[in-house]
Amino acid sequence: VQVRDALVGARTHASLAERSALVIGAGGLGGPALLSLAASGVGKLWVCDFDVVESSNLNRQPLFGEGDIGSRKALTAVSRLRAVAPGVRVEPVDRRFDGASAAELIQLAGVIIDGSDNFPTKFLVADAAFAAGRPLVHGGLLRYTAQILTVVPGEGPCLRCLFEAPPPAGEIPTCAAAGVLGALAGLAGGLMAAEALRLLGGERASYLGSLLIYDAREALARQVIIRRRPDCAGCSRPALEATA
Ligand SMILES: [Zn+2]
């Protein structure tokens, strides 16, 4: 499967139909990513979200409209995606991605897209994906800035090579508290989907060991090379052996 096939419509559907992706969070990043993956014909999508739709979500979460306020995000997202792409199998996971569910959920799909909105969940996703050998497209949003990093176990750095651990609670505000530019979420979610399509197609990942930082105020993108830290608690061999 070549990702350039994604440019020519119908041919994509045959090649991606056997692939699957798990998207954690159906919000500002996960929503646009899910729409792109469904429209591209990825065979099976899992939508993990435990939350309900709120009016403050609607500036950046295109799976939901005013009539959905109060509904379960995972269920509403799935019905919307099934309408967009009836040929794609889409399944809801209407529960929190937490320590109890992580190992089981991460096994569901070939690629993991992290569109969650808090650091503890992001680290939980990253550690579970690494342990299971699943490629991960990590994304983050805050106000006018988006970041994307891809982690492929055994190939390059992990999330903990970049950020050793989650920041102390309250040090960095969440999207919900600090706000986020709605249009930026759509851009970042679309880029995460494009990266997932590259991974599913066996193409070279664009953000593997290369953190994309996009600043929407300056309209500037840069990519920062991230190196493996030899003593990283996430991916160094002694650490893995110690937890085995
Ligand atoms: Zn690491």
Written description of the protein model:
It is a single chain. The chain has 244 residues and is α/β, with parallel strands linked by helices. 34% of the residues lie in helices and 18% in strands. It is built from 9 helices and 8 strands. The chain has helices at residues 10-16, 30-40, 73-84, 102-106, 119-132, 159-162, 175-178, 182-200, 237-243; strands at residues 20-24, 44-48, 89-93, 111-114, 136-142, 145-151, 210-215, 220-225. The protein has an 8-stranded mixed sheet with strand order 3-2-1-4-5-6-7-8, sandwiched between helices. α2 packs parallel to α3. The protein is globular. Mean pLDDT is 90; it is low at 239-244. Zinc ion binds next to α6.
Q: Which structural class should the secondary elements be placed in?
A: alpha/beta
The count of β-strands is: 8
Low-confidence stretches: 239-244
Q: How many individual helices?
A: 9
Q: What is the strand content?
A: 15-25%
Order of helices and strands: HEHEHEHEHEEHHHEEH
Tell me, rounded to a whole number, the average pLDDT: 90
Shape: globular
Distance between the termini: 35 Å
Profile the largest sheet: 8 strands, mixed
Classify the helix fraction into a percent range: 25-40%
What order do the strands of the largest sheet run in, or round the barrel if closed? 3-2-1-4-5-6-7-8
Q: Whole-number radius of gyration?
A: 17 Å
Ligand inventory reads: zinc ion
